[in-house]
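W.,

You were right to be curious about this one. When I first looked at the sequence I had no strong expectations either way, so I just let the prediction run and decided to look at it fresh. Below is the sequence, 458 residues in total, followed by the output.
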Amino acid sequence: MNYALINQLEEKIENVKFGKLQWKLFFLCGMGWAADMMWITGNAIFMNEIGEEWGVPVYQRSALPFGLMLGVFVGSYAWGTISDRRGRMLPFKRTLIISVISGAIGCASMNVWMMAVCFFGAGLGLGGNLAVDGAVFIEYCPNKSRHMLTGMSIVCVFGSILVCGCAWLYLGIGLPEMWRFLLVTIVFITLVSAIFRFSINETPHYLISKGKISEAEWVISEMLKYNGEEGVNIPLNSIEVQQENMPEHLDIRGQIKLLLSPPLRRSLVFYIMIWFFTAFTFTGFGSYLPEIMRRAGAGDTDNQSLYMTMFLQQLSGIPAVILATYLVKSSLGRKWTQAITLLLGSAFIFGFLTSSYDILMVCSVIFYLLTLIAYSVQYAITPEAFPAEVRSSAVGICNCANRLASMISPILAGILLEFTSNDVPAVILFSASLAAAGLSGCFIKETKDMPKINVCQR
């Protein structure tokens, strides 16, 4: 890696304003995350609806999140590796199309197994944009504006709010087989997001990491034109690039070797643990939220009231992202904002054992607020912690851990809810998992004020 060129690139981009292109990426990358949240939130609703319409037992409904997360598991590592070897734009521009095609077929599903297969295809596409979207944004962003990667989660949150709101609306107006209309809505929004991605160029960081200096200069020049800064000159070839100083083109073995090298190995292990245990709780708990809420005191409400409650819970994501964006710049930084909110969230899960619907509502909203703060930080701090040549691979591996947990937890939750008389075992399991994620977060390094070049060289 030619760190002299990367360092020079950082200095040049630091003088570029957070302009129209960065705002465009803010929404395009955010919509990639939103697509993931729409599918995850929609999963809970689909499971609830088909359980009633098709008479599917609780534990069999886990085929839907299992299929989705298996697809994301495979897609995260595969597309992350491809992104580091062949460019960010290959997965950035194509993976959501895979999700659209799979989701469109899923709208015609006749049984839970057909839905699960279609959800696997959707997850295969989602895994790619999860692995690369954060890297694309951060590699176009000045260091002073990197906290906006945390703020980008606000777009993600609107995805889950939209799904809950549509479910509430569609059920209220009496649409037959409401879940099919909800899936069509998710597919359409994902398609619109995918179409606008084709106007984005490859990131300058990736091009320099592969020794394509002139192409990197052209990309930055195009960015300046788009932002209305055509008068700014940012030549990179003032540093003579000797052949021996050209970046090494890493194959898969080289990428793994670098990730397992002493400077990065410790970070990778702790990030894997954070992503695994956070997802174990968030997905397992979220997938069966309607069932858990009925058994925890909301048993007398109908589905429309239930989806209204889920809508209110997801609304907590808006203040969550605003708080997260502020806190990551405060003295808490990325590290302690994530760790503390995960630990607090693990405590509020016990609120689901109450028999009072009012207390249940308060605890569930606070739980979602804290967890979504942690998730906002998680998606931002992880790309910052790894060098450009393996950044997408590292995020892809973390996403694999995330989705492995997301495959296991719904199955365990389904078994516990089907074969136990109360929610205590499930609540204890999910609380312990979130606490483990918070404790793991205490051992990572802070990245708040560290330039990307220094982060890469750690």
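Here's what jumped out at me. Residues 29 and 332 are 26 Å apart (CA to CA). And, maybe more interesting for your project: The chain has one domain: 3-233+251-452.

Coffee later to discuss?

I.
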